[in-house]
Sequence to fold (420 residues):
Amino acid sequence: MIDLRLLRENPELVRASQRARGESEHLVDVLLAADERRRSMVAAADSLRAEQKGSSAAVKQASPEERPAVLQCARDLATKVKAAEGEQAQADAELRQAQLAISNVVQEGAPAGGEDDYLVLREVGDKPALDSVRDHLELGELLGAIDTERGAKVSGARFYYLTGVGALLQLAMLQAAIDQAVSAGFTPVITPTLVKPEVMNGTGYLGSHSDEVYRLEADDLYLVGTSEVPLAGFHMNEILDLSGGPKRYAGWSSCYRREAGSYGKDTRGILRVHQFDKVEMFSYCAPEDAAAEHQRLLAWEEEMLAKVELPYRVIDTAAGDLGSSAARKFDCEAWIPSQGRYRELTSTSNCTQFQARRLGIRYRDGNNKSVPVATLNGTLATTRWIVAILENHQQPDGSVRVPKALQPYLGGREVFEPVR
RNA sequence: GGAGGCUUCGCCUAGUCUGGUCUAUGGCGCCCGCCUGCUAAGCGGGUUUGGGGCUUACACCCCAUCCCGGGUUCAAAUCCCGGAGCCUCCGCCA
Fold:
């Protein structure tokens, strides 16, 4: 949620952000009113409670003859306090609701507009010159690496098996990602993939994108769509020591997405699936360091993309295409030869203090005051990368060249040969 | 799944039976100061978190906070109900 103090001091900034996202400015007025109302309710309840304290003490000290009158007075006050607290609770709830309805304030510099209004920051690497292009599924089947038919038989559409070199490739890639992260000082973490509602909500995934999330009704738990969620929850309701710099974690987990509303989109192969594996970077840092940390995360993503030798471009996502928690987002999109276009392989978001405020994650600043930290996340490798690796490194006979940096993780193997 | 125990302001802990004097005790740690040639020891003070008020600021004041949520009461760390987490034992099972 956004900072109420900032809102009070500079409501125009929040309005401008709402405009850039294409979201309602009216929500800002609703929130301001709710904030004002709650403040007056709290003040009223506070002073009544103070009065009641004195009154209770008076009962104790009263002499037997004055006691009945004093007691009656105390009873009346108790009734008033109860009423005031009820009103305060309602005002609290209304404020929170209004606060949750507003997305994070967009960082200055992010392009305005929607999904198609991204800005291309750079293009890196050479697209492969291919006479004839096989798509990743055809290659995957030739190599005995991907089996979507049996995936569908066993679990339904958008499920798949990674078999043989497919399974090995994924493990190699994720292990390489973890190694890179550990070298960079990240703490590797294997996370839970089922989380409580408060954690899922705290990370901002139960807002407009709640259709994307699997929920286990019987247990009131959610399946995570990214290890960002359990990594953000890791330090929930804690005060962190950031005096040594950002706290960085690299989460390895399976990820689950319902892909509601994407019917008919990317139905072939494993580009868009309900379950995949991912190594995700997650940083907790001081708010003033967040923009720089965001660039560092982007640099680590590009380092990993270079290791698997993929041509890609970096885009600055437009305000209207940011998740509700993000203030700024950069995606790296790899060239997909079979589609003749770039597709997202990584995404790094600066959530500023938005998630931390919901999750109660703070640190002590220079004045020893506890303030919400900034949180950031970024992709280091996912199952989807296999699509780009197979297609970009394919050879005319259907074999696939193994990127040098992955070869040590595959017993020195330099090429995947067709098995049929 | 069944039975029992536990949860207090960084850590440990007193307080809960018997409601008000709890504005929560003590120790450890940490911070500031004094003392000392330096260090240790010693001495004095400070040290939950959040919201609000007042201030240039420091200070100070008010409210809430004893795992969480309800309830009883003029009044709850304390009594009652519900929940969570941890521990022990039993049962079942990878």
Remarks:
- Residues 26-61 of chain A form the longest helix (36 residues).
- Residues 293 and 299 of chain A are 10 Å apart (CA to CA).
- Chain A has a mean pLDDT of 91.
- Residues 39, 42-43, 45-47, 49-50, 52-53, 55-61, 70-78, 239, 370 of chain A lie near RNA strand B (CB under 10 Å from a C1').
